[in-house]
Task: structure prediction
Amino acid sequence: MGKILITGGAGFIGSNLTEYFLNKGYEVVCLDNFSTGHRHNIEAFLKNPNYKLIEGSICDLETCKEAVENVDYVLHQAALGSVPRSINDPITSNEVNVSGFLNMLVAARDAKVKRFVYAASSSTYGDSASLPKVEEVIGKPLSPYAITKYVNELYADVFSKTYGIECIGLRYFNVFGRRQDPNGTYAAVIPLFVKQLMNHQSPKINGTGDYSRDFTYIDNVIQMNELAMLTDNPEAINTVYNTAVGDRTTLNDLVHYIKKYLSEYDEQISNIEVIHGPNRVGDIPHSLASIEKAQNLLGYNPSHTIENGLKEAITWYWENLK
Ligand SMILES: NC(=O)c1ccc[n+]([C@@H]2O[C@H](COP(=O)([O-])OP(=O)(O)OC[C@H]3O[C@@H](n4cnc5c(N)ncnc54)[C@H](O)[C@@H]3O)[C@@H](O)[C@H]2O)c1
Result:
């Protein structure tokens, strides 16, 4: 079937991609330094003969070269996520997300991989107020993290034009689902709220709760990675795609759904009140993707709305966190 290198394979998205492609019969190499990923995310794969773990950093070029040996496809997920983390420590975010990305591109180019698919980000839309977001119209970045993700796109574009390596960037919009980490200072909003509500604590919304996001279930992201990896449409390569549902949900509605689905397991959760704090620096009010480009060029068809994605994610958290 082929061999895939998944960088960041011990993280949320990377471990889900690993599970999917191992089940399909691919060989999977994981390169991860466990800075934000977890051993429990990959434990189930370790006994699979088609799985290989390389513990190391994308900041080391030799490690990247070792990882891409005899690899057909790269799904590059390793990065330091989180806007607040990059505001607190822009240098480390830049080292991993920009220099590490460049190392991986160089290694993939030299190994002549068939395709380099990488995790880009909706943060690249920056201060652009237009909705829905279309790939060709971006604003100015609002955080160091957003800069790093935009620089990835610029490097991928230049590498495809200069060296002929086939690259596709997937601008992920607020991904959620099984194995997303609910712990730590930089936890994403959905697992954080689920954990707090399960512990009968009030979740805190930054602002009034009318900000909205195009929350995207992990299975839609897996689908986009597979389509990007395998497309034989020459017009579909060397570009970027919104990876989203094409629908937006306010923070207030999000909490409503989470409470509704958690209450099926513990009815007391329906009475927990939300608290509100100030808006966060660097947060844009609304985010909504146009998914037309992915539909037209890749044949993308999201399998999960936010509601049915949340229902599945909450079942997973209930079974695994309780
Ligand atoms: N989750 C989202 O909503 C979202 C949105 C937009 C973009 N993204 C991007 O998707 C990718 C995956 O994100 P995630 O949510 O799975 O995050 P995650 O933190 O769960 O996974 C990232 C993985 O990369 C690994 N990693 C970090 N630095 C590394 C290094 N120097 N060398 C090797 N491995 C390293 C971590 O240990 C972790 O396993 C990232 O590139 C992120 O920027 C995620």
In short: The two ends are 38 Å apart (CA to CA).
